[in-house]
Design brief:
With about 100 residues, this protein is mainly beta. The protein has no helices and 9 strands. β7 and β8 form a beta hairpin. About 25% of the residues are buried.
Length: about 100
């Protein structure tokens, strides 16, 4: 449980991911995720797959698999989110699509 955040580059922009893991019970994870983007000048943008979403997933040993429980995004976007990785201390290290990410508590 806890709040984790990290970022990865996406072309000239940076994507920031925040995962607020509310509960982990019997291998089932629930929480809230958020995806934000900033352009090269550091300004936040609202286009595309940006926003908050309910989070669900599984945890087994040090492996974690989390995804958006429903589609999200503004302007009719039907965005999805999934991270697969490992938990080590106060970090989650994994991949979102082809992007490597390290989230810290």
């Amino acid at each position: 449980s806890g709040k984790y955040s990290g970022r990865y580059p996406a072309g000239p922009s940076t994507i920031t991911i925040t995962l607020d893991i509310k509960s982990v019970e019997n291998g089932t994870v629930q929480g809230i995720g958020e995806r934000q983007g900033t352009d090269q000048s550091g300004q936040r943008f609202q286009r595309g797959c940006i926003g908050s979403f309910p989070l669900k997933g599984t945890a087994k040993g040090d492996s974690i698999d989390l995804q958006a429980a429903e589609k999200f995004g503004g302007s009719g976007a039907e965005c999805q989110f999934r991270i697969r990785g490992t938990v080590s201390g106060n970090k989650i290290v994994g991949k979102i699509g082809q992007n490597d990410i390290e989230l810290t508590k």
